[in-house]
Design brief:
Elements: E1 6-13, H1 17-27, E2 28-29, E3 44-48, E4 69-73, E5 83-92, E6 95-104, H2 106-121, H3 126-159, E7 161-163
Parallel strand pairs: 2-3
Antiparallel strand pairs: 1-6, 1-7, 3-4, 4-5, 5-6
Helix pairs in contact: 2-3
Length: 165
């Protein structure tokens, strides 16, 4: 279990950047803040940068490079612990390397920090406050890691890739 609510890993696939862009485009829908209906059955929602999937993507790890995609798993219900996935592409002779960062949504992290600070300033016995904070952070760790593992598995299957690091 990852205790940091953050993971950086590298994936390798035999697909080219254009093929990766096509597969992601088929499986990523735009972000819906208030989804009133289930219009698409996409696994991810977010943004893709079409320019990252065409031409030379070899400078993706250089300083000042931009990300190829920022996606998250389409939440089922009211899941606040859905991981955000950011990816950078690098073309290689044998395929493509993706540098992927998986993290907790910043709003959820800010809410947990705010809640913990407010709880620590409230009245009540310190052991109760510590237990309540530990339960909140533990719940976040469990559900974030479940979502992280599910998202990474689906991304590996979608791109026919393997994890390098």
């Amino acid at each position: 279990m990852n205790l940091l609510l953050y993971e950086r890993t590298t994936l390798r696939t035999a697909l080219g950047p254009a093929q990766i862009g096509e597969r992601l485009a088929r499986n990523v829908q735009p972000v819906q803040w208030f989804p009133w209906s289930k219009s698409k059955a996409s696994h991810f929602q977010g943004r893709l940068d079409p320019s990252a999937f065409h031409g030379n993507a070899a400078s993706a790890f250089e300083v000042g490079s931009h990300r190829a995609f920022k996606i998250m798993v389409t939440p089922k219900g009211r899941d606040s612990f859905v991981p955000v996935i950011e990816g950078y592409l690098t073309s290689m002779p044998e395929g493509t390397r993706l540098r992927v960062t998986i993290r907790l949504h910043l709003f959820t992290l800010a809410f947990l920090v705010f809640w913990t600070v407010m709880l620590s300033r409230s009245g009540g016995p310190p052991p109760v406050k510590m237990v309540m904070s530990a339960l909140a952070w533990g719940m976040c760790l469990v559900f974030f890691n479940l979502g992280r593992r599910r998202a990474k598995t689906f991304l590996l299957e979608l791109l026919e890739g393997t994890e390098v690091e």
